[in-house]
Design goal:
Length: 81
């Protein structure tokens, strides 16, 4: 093998190595994106649960307020503002 052939082979191996390293870097980025998306999904689910709980609490408060007014009316009691 002469020097020219050796240099061509060396250049080919360097290029191939660079390509493999780039692919590995992209794979790490894909794993990072998966972790980010999983975290985002978890946060969205918690927010949805929180919104649902707040909605239920609002309905419960409205019901309690209505009952209090009904009881006050039945016992002839005037509620203050």
């Amino acid at each position: 093998m002469n020097d020219d052939q050796f240099m061509k082979l060396f250049k080919y191996i360097q290029d191939f190595r660079s390509e493999v390293n780039q692919k590995l870097d992209e794979k790490a980025s894909a794993e990072d994106m998966k972790q980010i998306l999983d975290t985002l999904d978890t946060m969205i689910k918690k927010q949805e649960i929180s919104d649902d709980e707040r909605l239920v609490m609002g309905h419960q408060l409205e019901r309690l307020d209505r009952w209090v007014h009904e009881v006050a009316k039945k016992i002839d009691y005037t509620l203050s503002a």
